[in-house]
Structures are given as C-alpha cells and as structure tokens.
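Morning F.,

Quick status update on the modeling queue. The single chain you submitted on Monday has been processed. Sequence for confirmation:
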Amino acid sequence: MQSKQLFAVILILFLNNLKSQTLLVPSQVFDGVQLHSDWVVAVDENRITYAGPLSGLKRVNNYSKKELKGMTLMPGIIEGHSHLLLHPYNETEWNDQVLVESPTERAIRGTVHAKKTLMAGVTSMRDLGSEGAGYTDIYLKRTIDKGIIPGPRTLMAGPAIVATGAYGPKGFHDGVKVPLGAVPVSGRDNVISEVRTQLGQGANLIKIYADYRWGKDEPSQPTFLQEEINAMVETATTAGRYVVAHASTPEGMRRAIMGGVETIEHGDGGTAEIFVLMKEKGVALCPTLAAGDAISQYQGWKKGIEPDPERVAKKKKSFQLALESGVEIVFGGDVGVFPHGENYRELELMVAYGMEPIKALQAATAVNAKILHFDKLGMIQKGYFADIIAVEGNPIEDISLMKNVTYVMKDGTVYKDH
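Structure tokens below.
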C-alpha cells in the first residue's frame, strides 16, 4: 500500500512538472541582441531553460508546445522612464493632477495604468517620481509584487528631489501652502537627510532635478550646487542605490555627470561636448522623445502637416548628437505624459530620429536591463527570467509592429495570448 501511495505521489509530481514546462515555437527570436531564425524557447516554471535550434533541445516531448507562427519572440520590454501615477496632460493638466486628484484616486488610476503597461508588453519598468503623491508609487509596487494586481516588475524612485523654490505648482501668494510635485531641499545636510529618508521608505533609486525653471515661462537653469549633487550621489551609492537626474541644460547635465549620476533624463540641450563627457563617464541618456512630441501636439502642433516646433527640432538635434557620440541610450518615453500602454511611441520616434531599429530594440531590452539594474532580464537566454513577449511579423523591419503585442509572459505566467 505504501509503495502504491509513493508511486502516486511521484506520478503527480511528474505530471505537475510537465504542466510547468512550455516550448515556445515562433518564426524568429530576437534575443535582446540579434535576430535568430528557427529557434525555440523552453520555459520551466519562471525561467528560460533553453533557447536555440529545436535539434539542441533534449526531451522535447516533456514540453507543452505553443506555436507562434509568423511571430517574433523577444524579451519583455523594459521601460526606462514612466510615471504610473500620472495620466495624459490633455486629459488633466499636471497642476490639477497634483492639486485636485487625491493620492487615493491616483493610486487607483495607477492600478489601471500598470495593467495597460503589462498588456502592452512592458514586463519591467523604472518609475521616476510620484509627482506629488508621496510614496504612493512604492505602495503600488508592493501590490504588484504581492500579486494583488497585474503589472510589470518595477523600480520606484518615490518623490523626486528638487532644489528649494525650483518646482511647482507655483503662482500662489506666500500665505498659501500647496502640495508640491517633489520634495524641496537645500544644503549638504538637508540633501543627505532626504536621500536617507527616501531610501528608508523603500525607494529603489533617487531622482533629482539638476535644472528647472525658476519662474513661469523662464528657461531652465541649474538648481543644485555641485557639492549638493555629490552628497546625494555619495549617500545613495553608500546604500547600494543610484541616482538619476532630470537635466536639459548643458551646465545642469555637466554637474549631474560629474556628480556621478547613472542616467540623464531628457537632455534636450545636450551638446556634442556634453555627450562625449557622458560617454567618458559611463552615463547613459534617456531622451524621452515621446513626451515632447505629445506635449507639442497638445499645444496645437499638427504633426505631419506643420513644420516641427522648436521643441521637437531641438530634441531631434540633441538626439542625433547623442547617437554620434556613442553614448548609451536608455529606452524611456516619460509615459504618463501620454497614455500608458502606448510605450511603443518612443521606439517609433527613436527610429524616426535616426536610430537603427535593432539598436532601439536592444535599448528596450538588453541595454536597459544592464543600465537600470534588472538582473537576469532583457535577454532570451538560459537561466534568465521568463519575461517574454511576441509580435506579429518582424519589428526590426517595421518598428511600428511593436504597438500590437499579441503574447505576454511575465515570470512564467501568461497574461495575454491573442
């Protein structure tokens, strides 16, 4: 009797193991670096156990086969600059999102945004600031990690850090106290204290504003002193975290680079010299092309009919200078300024502004995984996590195909299959 029971247990375990093994059979595989024909990908539980020609896979019959004819299989997209707690500015202006919408409402919106993001094939993302909602982004991350709501893997920055007086909402007399979109600080002791506070609250990284507008409609100017940036970076790296910087002026970018930040966000006014400095120091650029494109259209620009507005023309020029310098490019669109789930917009613009399609896809997968510290992600490779998506056709030939992701697997679980 005991031997029969033991046999039954072994049989159940064997059958359960079979259920957890999936063989994905697409037309081609983009592994995060290059495209392969006649490859298959084997998944066991939440890990990739094989990627290569079918002839190299042992015990093929142990796998449940999933045919993906006509499709390109690739690593899940890694978004580098998102704001899950924001929604498009043509729906509600940024000021009103900060001043009128409660953190509770914004958290609920964030759950919808997280699902849309995952369904669009973004299986991991870096979220760069709660924009006035405190640590709501970190609480949102926890609900995703616990499996309460569907969403991508996330790295959350918590509230961004700005120089006192340099951020909004503004325009109120000095007797009115309004919620700010970030935390204002001044001086070495104050900036160190704020970084430590945020790390203690669960921030995965620190976002600072190296430059910003001091007054309405004024051009951006550097905000933090060099010693303040140095202190924030030193404090974060001591704790095993890193710092990223919003920066669009040459001097703001230079201070952030010399201070040791890992990525520059936006970089609109970057010069050839600044991008060379970034490359020398190993600092990557997240250009956020799609945000400027969207805002220009909100302001009345008829894209494709009218000439490029100054903002778009400037962005094209700086992006081309960055490409020429060889600085590493992070895929990140500042999504939230435009609709969540339309992350593909950034890929389309990267290509339209001069980047090779395969380089854009590398930026959204293997390169982002390395730069943003997503371990064992961004590649279709044995031992990596099973975050895998598929699109019809070949996106290297037509990047616009990325807007129609038909298959989404995150951590070995299939969330979309049509």
